[in-house]
Every structure is written in C-alpha cells, then in structure tokens.
Design a protein that fits this description.
Blueprint lengths: L5 H8 L3 H9 L6 H14 L5 H8 L4 E6 L5 H16 L3 E6 L4 H13 L4 E6 L4 H10 L3 E5 L10 E3 L1 H14 L5 E6 L4 H17 L4 E5 L4 H6 L1 H11 L3 E4 L2 H13 L9 E3 L16 E3 L2 H16 L10 E3 L2 E3 L6
Parallel strand pairs: 1-2, 1-3, 3-4, 5-11, 6-7, 6-8, 8-9
Antiparallel strand pairs: 10-12
Length: 333
C-alpha cells in the first residue's frame, strides 16, 4: 500500500478535502468535532503531508535564497554561516548560489531561486549593477543586499562604518606613542575606500599630525610586498614608525617585504591590517587588525529578511551599523 493521501484522510474522517486542508494549515475556522475527526484520521493513517505540494498551495516554502559572489572570499563564508545558523532557528533553510562576479550568472541565479519559490533573497556582493537591482525589485521577492564597496539609495542594509573604524585604528596607533602614521589604501574610487581615507584624515586633523598616504593598485599580499620599497623609503624620510594598511592580506605582504629587507616588525616598524581574516592570527608576527563581525552581519540580515517576509515590524528602518573592535597583536607596539 502506498503512502496515504489527503483524500484518504478526508474519506476516513467523513469530511471534505478542503476541511482537512483547513485543519492542517489552521487557515480557516473548523468546528471542534470536525477538527478532532481529521486529527484522529491523520493519526490512524500516519499521514505525512507532501511539503512541496503544501508549499505550492500555501505559497510558503520556508526557503531563503542566498547568492554570493564567490565562496572563496573568506568574509562571504562567515556571512553565510550567520545567515544559515540563525535561519534555522526561525525554521528557514537556505538555497545557495554563486555568481563569480558575472552579472549574467547573478541574474540567472535570481531567476532560478524564484522558480524554487524562495520567500526571500540575500545578495552578498562586491558590486551590483543598476540593471540587476531593477530585476531584483521586479521579482517582488523581499531581499537584503550586502555590498561592502557600494551604497544604494532607498535600500537599508547591515553595514560597517568604515570611516569610524579607520579613525579609531589611526588614533589607537598614535595613542601607542607613534608620532607619524602612514596609511596605505587602494586607489579605486568606491564607498569603502573613500570611507577609510576619510577616517584616517579625520584622525590626523583632530590630532594635528602630518598626513602620509600611499594609494596603490590591488588588494592581495603580492601588492603589499610590491609596494614595500616605496613605503619604506617614505617611512625613513619622514620618521614614520607605524603603517596602517587597507586589509590584512596587503599588510602581511608588506611585513614579508620588511622581513626580507632586514626591517623588524614591530621593533623597527609597527604594522596594522583591517578585517581580522583567519591568517591574521596565524601569521608571525600575529597581525594587529580591526575585527569585523561578519557572522553577526549575516545573523542580523536573515532576521531582518524574515521580518520583511512575515510583514512584521521592520528592524531595518535605517542602516544597521555594526561595531568593530581593534585586536592588538604582535605586529604593533
């Protein structure tokens, strides 16, 4: 004998299929007598509803689609963990897609997840075109956009105040007793880079110190190594004893250059990164850096999305700004 169906339940209980559906979904009032008959029939038949069919009827899948640019980007994996673990608390599962920075792949992922009847979308990207944003809005699926490099009008999100955090890190280095601090940042014109440069400049102005900035191409350790000679010459010429770099990877590449050229970190030069990637606490010397709570960003994002899905009180009436912390390690003194 095959699995019992809703028709079997209705026949045994002596009621209509619609009455069984109302009892199962608690959608409309049913008399106590009819409800009990249905519950007894479900128990006797050991009936288990087809969740897929049920979701098609109820338009409720308890699924959230998550699209990332690349799982190989470390912070994206941390965000996903926060989304997935907190999503499960609210009985939501995730369907994961990767776009690999390709706009067509991103649009295809949006279409695919829409066919799976996801109730909401979380897009974790480093760049989103206006065309894709329009497509997202046209799906009418509630969504949260997490983009560390760009800001979008009329879209509230969970984010970091990079200006404030770079300001705090710069002040921290001066509070350690350094007279001059060099900031090495990426030259690309985007929200994140502008904010970090502004944070450094604000601290310098407030402390009435001299400004030293080096703008470079690239974001990885090789780029940090390649800028080493120019940065060290600038430090020696201007009595700079601390260097703050845009991220941990560039900072580690810069420390490698220092090591290869007889410059001891932190005895000769203090170095700080930004992001607190996993390598920051493994590399020697351990890297002083700013720790970003990526897990918490993911957790708050899924909570906000579920509230949107359920039309409950909105927790993102404005951007939710997360606090970071400075992690002092061996690379600075």
């Amino acid at each position: 004998m095959g699995q019992p169906t809703i028709k079997d339940v209705a026949k045994l209980a002596g009621v209509s299929i619609s009455t069984v559906s109302r009892v199962m979904n608690n959608s409309k009032p049913v008399s106590p007598e009819a409800r009990q008959k249905v519950l007894d029939a479900i128990a006797k038949l050991d009936f288990k509803p087809n969740e897929l069919a049920r979701s098609l009827v109820m338009r409720k899948s308890n699924l959230v689609g998550v699209i990332v640019e690349d799982l190989g980007i470390e912070y994206m994996a941390q965000l996903i963990r926060g989304v997935e673990e907190i999503g499960r608390v609210y009985k939501y599962d995730i369907l994961l897609q990767s776009s690999y920075g390709n706009e067509e792949a991103l649009n295809n992922s949006i279409d695919f997840l829409a066919t799976k009847q996801v109730e909401g979308l979380i897009i974790i990207t480093e760049n989103l075109t206006d065309e894709t944003l329009i497509k997202l809005r046209e799906t009418r699926i509630p969504f949260i956009l997490l983009d560390k490099y760009h800001a979008y009008k009329n879209l509230n999100t969970v984010r970091i105040d990079y200006k404030k955090e770079q300001y705090n890190l710069t002040k921290y280095l001066f509070d350690m007793g350094h007279e001059n601090v060099l900031y090495i940042g990426n030259k690309d014109d985007n929200e994140l880079n502008r904010a970090k440069f502004a944070g450094y400049k604000e601290a310098i102005k407030e402390l009435e110190k001299e400004r030293f900035i080096l703008k470079i191409d690239g974001l990885n350790s090789d780029d940090g190594y390649n800028i080493g000679e120019e940065a060290i010459n600038l430090c020696k010429k201007n009595n700079i004893t601390a260097v703050s770099l845009m991220n941990d990877e560039v900072a580690i590449g810069f420390i490698d250059y220092c090591t290869d050229n007889g410059i001891k970190v932190p005895n000769d030069l203090s170095v700080a990164g930004f992001g607190d990637s996993s390598i920051a606490s493994i590399y020697r010397p351990n890297l002083t850096t700013v720790s970003i709570p990526y897990y918490d960003i993911g957790a708050i994002s899924i909570r906000a999305l579920i509230k949107r899905i359920k039309n409950e009180e909105e927790i993102l009436l404005n951007d939710w700004v997360m606090e970071c912390s400075i992690v002092a390690r061996e690379s600075s003194k």
